[in-house]
Amino acid sequence: MHLLVMVGVSLVILAVVLIFIRIYARQGKEYVMPDFVNKNIAEAMATNEIDLDFVVMDSIFRDGAEGGIILTQDPQGGTMVKSGRKVYVSITAYNADDAILPELAGLSVRQAVSELYAVGLVAGKLTFVEDPYKNSVVNQSCKGRTLYAGQQIPRGSVVDLVVGSGDGDGENSVPFVIGKTADKARRDILSVSLNVGTEYFRGVKNKLTAVVYRQEPDYTGVNKYPYGTSVDLWYIDADNADISKMVTDFKVDSSKIIITEQENDGRPSPEDIDENWQW
Predict the structure, then answer these.
(1) At 79, phi and psi to the nearest 5?
(2) What is the sign of the dihedral through the CA atoms of 85, 88, 92 and 94?
């Protein structure tokens, strides 16, 4: 009898534990995580149907942007989650706090642009001046006022850079920015020491999420342009764009490739090679 009682009690305890674990872990009750990016966090919390717990990890000030807009989320939309899951988000700041301007003098343009974005500032126009150090930052300014390392300026401010031209023959290829947002496209262009030219947002409803569908000069992967060359951009609302198709269907227009004279390295030219020639 004692043995039977012990076995019975053990089975009851095991059943209770398994039931508790099942309830606690919410086994079999998973939901599709909604995509909250570009939505206001207050609205996302109000329409939260699966008891998600929002945790704001960072707030980034963007001039002209509404505060509280979700920029990133983890887990991402479309993943399977359980009720009560924590969602880590970054949002646009409601007010601009101050950022400390880092030391940029002597850095390459790419490094300076990265440093500015890292502290919440935005790289603006590049102006090239005579200086022995090519592509090296000489000084920086905001709205025409010269700035110095260590100064506090509102986060999100646009910082223009004065850059050395060296021997004056610096050049680079235009990056491929089709399908990218304005922020990402501007950063990519500035990082290769080119300038962002005219931006066309005609008919665009949301400039923050709009993506590039045309750029001029166009991307060829071959052509190189002098430092400071302006790249014009045309945008379309992300909701009206199939970004993956835009990128995968892009074809380089060979008619836009600029052939430059190159020193002959001893190889035969295409005109010298017939179908039977093997180099």
Answers:
(1) -80, 160
(2) positive
d(CA 211, CA 117): 19
Tokens of 253: 């227009």
Cβ partners under 8 Å of residue 255, min gap 6: none
Give the three-class secondary structure for 63: coil
Taking alpha carbons only, the member of 85, 72, 68, 107 closest to residue 26 is 85
Q: How far apart are the first and last CA of the chain?
A: 94
Closest CA to 219 of 243, 241, 259, 189: 189
Residues 160-188 have pLDDT tens digits of 999 999 888 889 999 999 999 999 999 99
pTM of the entire predicted model = 0.66
> What span, in angstroms and rounded, lies between the C-alpha atoms of 101 and 58?
19
Q: How far is CA 124 from CA 93, 206, 230, 276, in A?
A: 21, 21, 12, 54
Instruction: Identify which of 117, 177, 173, 116 has the alpha carbon closest to the alpha carbon of residue 147.
Output: 116
Chain centroid offset of residue 156 CA: 15
